[in-house]
């Protein structure tokens, strides 16, 4: 039925008003989230200890180390904010292709430092910390919405517990040493994962296996990790330097031009996380950044397609 001359302008005005309302609401929510982030950031910085170290190498592979061995590399409050800073550095590293995440002194990470946890044990601060770490680890996985995406691997030595287990899921791959254990111990603490680990775990191992690991608090050794798809390889202890072996393993995926490697990661991420139409648009844009680029022209000149 056709709209009358009065109804049509009224409907258009209503649509415009609703559009303005939702835009204003989005702006308000964004500002509110930024305010909450800054608030929890300041509170977390009150609990120092340890560090997040980052070494960017000429090979295009960076090594990020969770360094707090006195507490099994548990995240202090200041380490949570340092992690955000290191991710920001990686987002702006134009030569980067790959990232190794590891723990200091032969163990991966035991989650949150209880001193910081006790200080923010009220639900309000807990939610803010959850939002802060979810955002940081999502940026680590995506490296800021595909800005400069890197292919990443967690080198799991010793124990990865709680938040440490969640950190492993923020990487594309996981290599475990033969004596390593990953365990989502949140249930024992009366909690569920709060750093995005549950959502990422389901995507990696499927809902049934995720339920076994979270509700059953099942320990994941390298063989079981390999069986369910949580581990992508096993490094035997005593057979060479584990970091060197991990770099060698990762280099099979990072060999070549940095823009091409990042474009590959971008199209894979978009295919996994976006609707098909959006993923196709992202793929088209990524294709446009490398078509006729230096690596493409060099390959054409050398006729390397079938080599």
TrEMBL record:
GO cellular component terms given for this protein: cytosol
Reaction catalysis annotation: (2R)-ethylmalonyl-CoA + H(+) = butanoyl-CoA + CO2; (2S)-ethylmalonyl-CoA + H(+) = butanoyl-CoA + CO2; (S)-methylmalonyl-CoA + H(+) = propanoyl-CoA + CO2
Pfam family, one: ECH_1
EC number(s) stated in the UniProt entry for this protein: 4.1.1.94
Major location category of this protein: cytoplasm
InterPro entries xref list: ClpP/crotonase-like_dom_sf, Enoyl-CoA_hyd/isom_CS, Enoyl-CoA_hydra/iso
Compartments (UniProt record): Cytoplasm, Cytosol
Alphabetized GO MF terms: methyl/ethyl malonyl-CoA decarboxylase activity
The UniProt record lists the keyword Lyase: yes
Record keywords, A-Z: Cytoplasm, Lyase
Record's protein name: Ethylmalonyl-CoA decarboxylase
Gene3D superfamilies documented for this protein: 2-enoyl-CoA Hydratase, Chain A, domain 1 (3.90.226.10)
GO biological process, one term: fatty acid beta-oxidation
Record's keyword annotation contains Cell membrane: no
Top EC group: lyase
Family of this protein: Belongs to the enoyl-CoA hydratase/isomerase family.
